[in-house]
Amino acid sequence: MGQTVFNIPPQHEQKIAIIGAGAMGVSIACILARLGIAHVTIFEAESKPFNSRGASINNTGILHHFVYGGHQKTLEQLFYQGILKANARICFWR
Questions:
Q1: Nearest-5° Cα angle at 84, 80 to 88
Q2: DSSP symbols for the chain
Q3: What digits encode the pLDDT tens for the residues 12-42?
Q4: Could you give the dihedral angle defined by the CA atoms of residues 15, 26, 81 and 70, in that order, rounded to the nearest 10 degrees?
Q5: Terminal Cα distance for the chain, rounded
Q6: Mean pLDDT throughout 55-80?
Q7: What is the pTM of this model?
Q8: b/e string for 38-70 if b means 16 or more Cβ within 10 A?
Q9: Kindly report the CA angle at 92 between 90 and 78, in degrees rounded to 5?
Q10: Which of 4, 23, 77, 93 is the most exposed place for a label (fewest CB within 10 A)?
């Protein structure tokens, strides 16, 4: 415990897109924010993250699902700051 896998300093000016506002997508966004990465956007195809279910963040920054509840303020803040974009259409080209 406590050992790092990577020892690469974060590039604070990088722009990062996360596809999916499920537990992992939002967890990664929270971890990146703690590392000082300011330009993170989460794209979600559904109108609500977590498929209309809730989640809470434990002390490691990882989300745990539960029935809809107290995470609403966090999600409202993510929408307000423009970090979370609902009903997003993502296209990939080769």
A1: 125
A2: ----S------TT-EEEEE--SHHHHHHHHHHHHTT--EEEEE-SSSSGGGG-EEEE-TTS-EEEESS-TTHHHHHHHHHTT-EESS-------
A3: 677 888 888 877 787 788 778 777 777 888 8
A4: -170
A5: 39
A6: 58
A7: 0.50
A8: eebbbbbeeeebbeeebbeeeeeebbeeeeeee
A9: 30
A10: 93
Token pair 């963040």 in the structure block, residue? 57
81: left (phi over 0), alpha (psi -120 to 50) or beta: alpha
Residue 20 buriedness (CB in 10 A; 0-12 / 13-18 / 19+): middle
CA distance 86 to 76: 12
Place of tokens 């539960």: 66
Answer for the pair 62, 79: CB distance below 8 angstroms, yes or no.
Answer: no
